[in-house]
Amino acid sequence: MKISVVIPVFNERATIQQIVKVVRAAEVGEIEIIVVDDGSTDGTQQVLKDQIGSLANQIIYQPRNMGKGAALRAGFAAATGDIVLVQDADLEYNPADYPTLLEPILTGKADAVFGSRFMGGRPHRVLYFWHMVGNRFLTLLSNMFTNLNLTDVETCYKAFRSDIIKSLDLRENRFGFEPEVTAKLAKTKCRIYEVGISYNGRTYSEGKKVNWKDGFHAIYAIVRYNLFP
After folding, report:
1. Domain count, the chain
2. Quick one: which of 24, 33, 79, 84 could link to 56 by a disulfide (CB 3.0–4.6 Å)?
3. How far apart (Å, rounded) are the C-alpha atoms in residues 55 and 34?
4. 152-172 mean pLDDT
5. Are 122 and 196 in contact (CB under 8 A)?
6. Is the Cβ–Cβ distance between 197 and 100 less than 8 Å?
7. Closest CA to 59 of 40, 78, 31
8. CATH classification of the domain holding 182
9. What is the pLDDT of residue 127?
10. Higher confidence at residue 134 or residue 214?
11. Crossing angle of helices 212-227/177-188, nearest 10°?
């Protein structure tokens, strides 16, 4: 099977080349790498043009900064693989976890897989307590609406059968993508699995972008896409 790895990137000049190299080296069969630059202004676009061209299969340049959700929609539309996997452009999530993430789909047990930072025995960097509390609250709220028993709705690592993700009418432009895609997957009654992954979280000084405003919007997205699809 061909795996399409969609990498949305915004102002990640320091890490984009390294993450693309690591994804290209992942041992999971045929990989299609699609990088979607979301209007970067820090020199990321120059790195993509000068150093990434031979490593990525496609590089898409958004006309302006539109948000992670918008970048992912562009990447999903361009994907030609049998499975679509989301990879952030920083180094928080490790492509060494791909075999674990993909196994339930490759063996025909799942249609979508979430990589959880809160289950399993993989290494995790110890960081913000209140981020953990916020993530668990959002996951609990999402589960109450979807009747799923996920442990990490806000995880970056999500893999989907291509036909499933392409069939969803996704609308969120920013980080509301996570609760939106979860709600819409749940409504399809598809088979969702969850696996434990490692996590090397960043501090804000190291470039972390999610903030409290995104948390409040996630609450809105959970209610919006579960009650008013």
Report:
1. 1
2. 33
3. 10
4. 97
5. yes
6. yes
7. 78
8. 3.90.550.10
9. 63
10. 134
11. 20
Average pLDDT over residues 194-201: 89
Residue numbers of the domain that contains 159:
2-227
- The full length of the chain comes to 229
String of DSSP letters for the chain: -EEEEEEEESS-TTTHHHHHHHHHH-SSSEEEEEEEE-S--SSHHHHIIIIITTT-SEEEE-SS---HHHHHHHHHHH--SSEEEE--SSSSS-GGGHHHHHHHHHTTS-SEEEEETTSSS--B----HHHHHHHHHHHHHHHHHH----S-TT-S-EEEEHHHHHHS-----STTHHHHHHHHHHHHT--EEEEE--B-PPPGGGT----HHHHHHHHHHHHHHHH--
Question: Model confidence over 23-39: pLDDT tens digits?
Answer: 999 989 999 999 999 99
Whether the Cβ atoms of residue 5 and residue 87 lie closer than 8 Å to each other: yes
